[in-house]
């Protein structure tokens, strides 16, 4: 009994109106804003056409934010995938206490970003941090490392981000692993496949579709990640070595009060994402039954 | 089918221990630091367990900062966001499942597309829109923001749950004389409860954890939520690590309680998108 008609639309309407006013309209307004010179706090504004975009094209800070953003997102996505898949395979094994371990490992993803950042700032603290203590007492480093200085700030940011987000990959992959029919493994065993061959020829093809969607989502979210990066920039003085594109858009709007320019950075980021997602679909979608 | 040799058990145990050390130990360390007096926090070499456990960090947090206000604000805003999201998403998802109307699939696809908008893209115009309506620096603005961000996954997740409920059950109730509304309340909602709970939890966690919207939309100290309050505590001139770790510990306790209670629902809902982050 799938009823025809209006009542269904009426039930969805409130949700749609809210989404339209609070997400679709702001994105449209962002496009409009990017064509104007507008102060972030005061009402004056002037139409400038594509001037903001042309400015960005010649703006070394913008290109630097793109470079830093790519280093950050590519390396964190890669590490999250490797660690997430490995951990999922591990927690798919049966052993005593497995459910507790599964629960514990998901916590980093569930806690507020600000907590993740402050607790790693404490772990990596120059004077009293546990990491430096470990490195020095094991003789890996002769003196404590300044994790928030110019040379290591990106590494620290990557560490925090991978810690915080690999459980997403873990959970997605683990859920899929549980639905792979065991007959497939039995058949492979009969054919003489060892553990590695079973992983490559049975597990990986089955994981292809979940990995496809996980990589897509994680790429979108890491490329536009603001809070982890921003909170890592607070205090330490090496802020500009992790100034990714979302942080640059924020600075333009709320530090330089150039709302139009900030919006232009956000729009460029969005267009790059759409282009990358379209290419990604074009290249890989054919291989999956999505 | 556990034909593992001793060596295999050893390797397995080692791998699990390494994973736990990476994922969970930092949280444990935060908790242990929160219970240490400052003489033990600033000691070299660091000591694992507190020798003289103390609640003085928590006492300082309550006495010297507005932590209790931030906590109260977070509870109010997150609960309101959950209620508003469910009020909009449950009927919405039901409408998208049980009724056929022109453009239904287009609507569903558009909703999924809004899932792609990152907060940083929306926040600048969102802030200006809220200021125009006189809602900047209010909790209402935060509730609306969290609801807007939860709705796409809430609609999709609930839709998959409604789709899995056999329609015969509603029809049977209605043949017995129940109105459609009563059939939904007494038959459909109880069966979709795991999905509704999972949606509520994910929305709560999203609102409870958010930093960016609260940072930009709220300027008065007495309206701030926990993530912003804690970030400001950290940015204060002298960093009181014991107090900061205590604040971190108290913030994640609700998340831990809620999460361990509903973990099984959560895994069930993961296939339909999961929470953004």
Automatic annotation (TrEMBL), chain A:
Entry keyword annotation includes Transport: yes
Q: Where in the cell is it found?
A: Cell membrane
For this protein, the parts annotated as crossing the membrane are: 9-32, 70-91, 103-123, 152-175, 196-221, 261-284
Q: Which UniProt keywords apply?
A: Cell membrane, Membrane, Transmembrane, Transmembrane helix, Transport
Instruction: Give start and end of each ABC transmembrane type-1 domain.
Output: 66-282
* Membrane topology recorded in Swiss-Prot or TrEMBL: Multi-pass membrane protein
Q: What domain of life is recorded for the organism?
A: Bacteria
A Gene Ontology annotation in the biological process aspect, one of them, is: transmembrane transport
Keyword tRNA processing appears in the UniProt entry: no
* PANTHER family (alphabetical): BLR7065 PROTEIN, SPERMIDINE_PUTRESCINE TRANSPORT SYSTEM PERMEASE PROTEIN
Q: Into which family does the record put it?
A: Belongs to the binding-protein-dependent transport system permease family.
Protein name according to UniProt: ABC transmembrane type-1 domain-containing protein
**Species lineage, top-down?**
Bacteria, Pseudomonadati, Pseudomonadota, Alphaproteobacteria, Hyphomicrobiales
From TrEMBL, chain B:
- Keywords per UniProt: Cell membrane, Membrane, Transmembrane, Transmembrane helix, Transport
- Localization: Cell membrane
In the UniProt record, does the keyword Heme occur?
no
Q: What is its main location?
A: membrane
Membrane topology term: Multi-pass membrane protein
Signal peptide span:
none
Where does the ABC transmembrane type-1 domain lie?
Answer: 71-262
For this protein, the record's CDD domains field holds: TM_PBP2 (cd06261)
What InterPro entries does the record point to?
BP-dep_ABC_trans_perm, MetI-like, MetI-like_sf
Membrane spanning segments where?
A: 7-29, 75-94, 106-128, 140-162, 183-208, 241-262
Gene Ontology terms: cellular component: plasma membrane
Q: Which GO terms describe its biological process?
A: transmembrane transport
Which family, according to the similarity comment? Belongs to the binding-protein-dependent transport system permease family.
Protein name (record):
ABC transmembrane type-1 domain-containing protein
Species classification: Bacteria, Pseudomonadati, Pseudomonadota, Alphaproteobacteria, Hyphomicrobiales
């Amino acid at each position: 009994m799938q009823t025809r008609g209006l009542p269904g639309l009426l039930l969805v309407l409130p949700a749609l109106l809210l989404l339209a006013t609070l997400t679709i309209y702001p994105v449209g307004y962002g496009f409009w804003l990017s064509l104007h010179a507008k102060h972030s706090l005061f009402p004056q504004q002037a139409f400038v056409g594509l001037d903001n975009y042309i400015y960005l094209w010649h703006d070394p800070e913008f290109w630097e934010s793109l470079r830093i953003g790519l280093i950050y997102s590519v390396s964190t996505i890669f590490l999250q995938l490797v660690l997430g898949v490995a951990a999922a395979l591990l927690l798919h094994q049966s052993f005593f206490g497995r459910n507790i371990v599964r629960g514990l490992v998901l916590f980093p993803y569930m806690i507020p970003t600000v907590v993740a950042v402050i607790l790693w700032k404490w772990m990596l603290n120059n004077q009293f941090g546990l990491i430096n203590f470990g490195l020095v007492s094991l003789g890996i480093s002769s003196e404590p490392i300044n994790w928030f200085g110019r040379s290591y700030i990106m590494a620290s940011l990557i560490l925090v981000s991978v810690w915080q987000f690999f459980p997403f990959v873990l959970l997605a992959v683990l859920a899929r692993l549980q639905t792979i029919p065991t007959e497939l493994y039995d058949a492979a065993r009969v054919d003489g496949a060892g553990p590695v061959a079973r992983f490559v020829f049975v597990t990986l093809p089955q994981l292809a579709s979940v990995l496809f969607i996980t990589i897509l989502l994680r790429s979108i979210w890491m490329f536009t990640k603001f809070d982890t990066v921003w909170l890592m920039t607070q205090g330490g003085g090496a802020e500009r070595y992790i100034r990714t594109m979302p942080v640059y858009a924020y600075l333009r709007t709320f530090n330089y009060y150039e709302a139009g320019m900030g919006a232009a950075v956000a729009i460029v980021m969005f267009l790059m994402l759409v282009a990358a997602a379209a290419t990604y679909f074009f290249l890989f979608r054919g291989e999956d039954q999505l | 089918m556990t034909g593992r040799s001793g060596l295999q058990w050893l390797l397995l145990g080692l791998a699990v221990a390494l994973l736990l050390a990476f994922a969970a130990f930092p949280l444990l360390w935060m908790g242990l630091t929160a219970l240490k007096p400052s003489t033990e926090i600033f000691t070299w070499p660091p000591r694992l367990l507190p020798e003289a456990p103390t609640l003085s960090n928590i006492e300082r947090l309550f006495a010297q900062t507005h932590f209790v206000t931030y906590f109260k604000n977070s509870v109010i805003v997150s609960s309101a966001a959950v209620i508003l999201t469910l009020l909009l998403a449950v009927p919405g998802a039901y409408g998208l499942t049980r009724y056929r109307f022109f453009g239904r699939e287009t609507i569903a696809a558009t909703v999924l597309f809004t899932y792609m908008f990152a907060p940083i893209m929306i926040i600048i115009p969102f802030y200006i829109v809220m200021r125009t309506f006189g809602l900047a620096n209010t909790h209402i603005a935060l509730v609306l923001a969290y609801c807007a961000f939860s709705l796409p996954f809430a609609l999709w997740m609930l839709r998959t749950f409604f789709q899995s409920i056999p329609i015969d059950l509603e029809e049977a109730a209605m043949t017995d004389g129940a109105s459609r509304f009563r059939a939904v309340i007494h038959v459909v909602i109880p069966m979709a409860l795991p999905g509704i709970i999972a949606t509520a939890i994910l929305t709560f966690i999203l609102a409870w954890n958010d930093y960016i919207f609260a940072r930009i939309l709220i300027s008065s100290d007495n309206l701030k939520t926990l993530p912003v309050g804690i970030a400001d505590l950290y940015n204060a001139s002298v960093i009181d690590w014991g107090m900061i770790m205590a604040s971190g510990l108290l913030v994640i306790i609700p998340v831990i309680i809620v999460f361990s209670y509903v973990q099984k629902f959560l895994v069930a809902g993961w296939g339909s998108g999961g929470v953004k982050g």
